[in-house]
Amino acid sequence: MMRASVSRRGFLAAGAAMASAAMTGGAAPAGLKLGVMDGVLGLATDPACFAKAKELGVAGVQVTLGRPAKKGTSLPLSSKALQEKMLAASAAAGVPIVSTYLDVLHDDCLKNSDKASQWVLDGIQITKALKAKILMPVFFGKCELATHGGIEKAVAAFKDLAPAALDEGVTIGMESLLTAKQSLFVLEQVDSPALKVYYDVGNAANMIGVDPASELRIYGAQNLCQIHFKDKAYLGQGKVDFPAVYAALNEIGYQGYGVLETNAPTKDTDADLKRNLEFLASL
User: Fold this and answer.
1) Which residue segments constitute the domains of the chain, with CATH numbers given?
2) What angle do CA 145, 147, 150 make, to 5 degrees?
3) In this predicted model, what pLDDT tens digit does every residue of 206-257 receive, in sequence order?
4) How far apart are CA 256 and CA 225, in angstroms?
5) What's the CA gap between 164 and 258, in Å, rounded?
6) pLDDT tens digits, one per residue of 42-79
7) Is 242 helix (H, G, I), strand (E, B) or coil?
8) Distance from CA of residue 50 to its chain's centroid?
9) Of the N and C termini of the chain, which has fewer Cβ atoms inside 10 Å?
10) Stated pTM of the model
11) CA torsion, ordered 271, 273, 277, 282, to nearest 10 deg
């Protein structure tokens, strides 16, 4: 059974947020920078993503590690040559790699696959080589943590993987459809500074059916490594209350990136991303 009450970790985080609430307003969070997934630019695992991000005024890029070729045993970004190209393009544009996305975990599930654990270990090494600090494993579709048994298996996997991440200075940021209470349970069970939550406000509001602002206050900044910004179609057209999200991020003192994982409804990637950036700038 899952815990019936908010964990001590979450209780302390929520208390700190409430204590600071009176001192903060609804303005854009002072510690927030905007990034974008390379796939949103239509340039997944492509060095050209950094120049495009700079052109559009985005401050960082989350890089997709890619899936192996059929029957392959390595991720595309395991290639030292490709790593060097990514780093050179990042430096030339002045746009850092703010995190990596382990998309192969849509195919191999960490809750039930030893192969998935090896992908995470590979991802840790690639993330370090790319001079990033955050690796994002995902739990969606067939890999969703839909049962307590699945959650317990993920906990066991993370207990094995967290020491390797800690040794390399990489934070594992799990992105899932778990509620804040469930995610904090995982963090408490693993009990490692190398594991945090990669929070997605769009998934929270539109898929899980919870209020992202309330959950951000439950988490507190110390349990979050990075945040995805998305909604339905364009930002502001779904259930996400972005002014409330910004107020919550201010209250908890979040310092980091909000990475856009947005759609391109018109199929014009540049124009649609600009529209979403303009929406956020208007808050």
Assistant:
1) 31-281 (3.20.20.150)
2) 55
3) 999 999 999 999 999 999 999 999 999 999 999 999 999 999 999 999 999 9
4) 8
5) 26
6) 999 999 999 999 999 999 999 999 999 887 899 999 99
7) helix
8) 18
9) N
10) 0.91
11) 50
